[in-house]
Amino acid sequence: MSSGPAAPVGSVAVIGAGLAGLSAAMHLRAAGVHVTVLEAAAAPGGRAARTNRAGFSLDVGPTVITLPDVLADCFAALGEELSDHLRLLPVDPAYVARMHDGSTLALTTDVEVMAERVRAFSGPRDADGYLRLVAHLRAIYRAELPHFIDRNLDSPLSLVNRPLLDIVRLRGFSRLAKVMASFFEDERLRRAFGFQAMYAGVAPSSALGLFAVITAMDLIEGVVYPVGGINAVPTAMATALESHGVEIRYGTTVSSVREDTRDVLVTDADGRSDRYDSVVLTCEPEAAATLLGDHTSRTLRRRRQMSPSCVVLAAGVDHRLPVEAHHTIHLGRAWDEVFVDLAEGRPMRDPSFLVSVPTRTDPSIAPAGGDVLYALFPTPHLRHQHPLDWRRLRAPYREHMLHHLAAAGMGDLSGSFEVEELITPDDWRRRGFADGTPLSAAHTFMQTGPFRTPNRLSSRLVLAGSGTTPGIGVPMVLISGRLAAERLVGRDPSYRSRAWR
């Protein structure tokens, strides 16, 4: 199967104004295509949505942006400079890892500083191990990103090349936990530098070593935060698109997509129908199958192994919280047992969770003297024989979260929220996420790379977003939009992402 376009493309409908859809639209528009973006919500964002109330700006989706050059490439496709549209602030430390024994480790991208912190934390052997890990992460990043993530892979045969041998040599197909154990004697460090596999929906004990690339993105390339919050990214992308003649129809819910021999008919919930040469769908594969109806691609009907879900508590408080870091990952005493709980459909008995206080980096998203709190607790998805009843659990689980936040040093938060958003797996399901998880399909071996739901459904229909290649995470969905555009208009021969130069 060729990665080039199947037919001349003059008009494309992009369904969804999330990061993937906006990225696809920017790259399509750069190719001279007439692009129309159809979005059900009243504003851009998709998973990166925002709630504005009482002077607080609450992001309720992703909290981390890495590889900002991938985002810069979207603007560059339109001849624009990212810095003219967004101000990105460094987040340092990228995370603070708080261990079950009360010890903490601030994770920074400064290698010399980090080596000294590891030395003070657990001794010279682990400090030397950290330096070896940095070399490993840089090598796997350079081998993996341009060759396995930033390109369309038509089949497993696409992987048979020199970079694959490099990945094998770098233990990319070993278990991530074993790879981390080869660098660190201290179990706490193995967790601090390996927990990112949770983003991919897989326990570190079973995740492939190639997912160390997520650690590389966080701790080698660095984490940034946009002024105004994460939703400022899709807002800026949409503004740039409109300035280049792209129409974005908000409040437009697409009800069906029908392909025929000449074009694709897109009908919305109000009965309006328009024809396009091609369509980019940015929803999960299950939702795409519903839109396509009897024309559903067989690949969309394949049952996927889903990532765990999560409960998100986003809130605004009128005082400063006793937290100094933007991101703190709280790692419980249990580790493998946590993932067993999630896999078997139980709440974590000894939870590990993420706390973000983005006002540490950008105070403008709260009134003077206030703070924004974001807490994410992993939970089982809803595809279990006896799924959790979140209508019953909603209130008690909120109290459970507040209890653990208080035990983690946040103090008594009961009754202190000026504004609040609580999102459970039931809420995620109502928002259109399969099995109640916003984290899409788990990155198991058979759901990674060319084995993931493919982005080409037919000559005129392509898929973008977390559910297809390359997968979950802000840079990945931005790349997925460009890869979807390439399926329709071909690869720009001058393109080479600034992220890998």
Automatic annotation (TrEMBL):
Pfam families (alphabetical): Amino_oxidase
Pathway field: Carotenoid biosynthesis
Keywords, comma-separated and alphabetical: Carotenoid biosynthesis, Oxidoreductase
InterPro entries listed in its UniProt record: Amino_oxidase (IPR002937), Carotenoid/retinoid_OxRdtase (IPR014105), FAD/NAD-bd_sf (IPR036188)
GO molecular function, one term: oxidoreductase activity
Domain Amine oxidase, first and last residues per copy: 19-488
Gene Ontology process terms (BP): carotenoid biosynthetic process
Family, per entry: Belongs to the carotenoid/retinoid oxidoreductase family.
Protein name per the record: Amine oxidase domain-containing protein
Organism whose genome encodes this protein: Luteipulveratus mongoliensis
Classification of source organism: Bacteria, Bacillati, Actinomycetota, Actinomycetes, Micrococcales
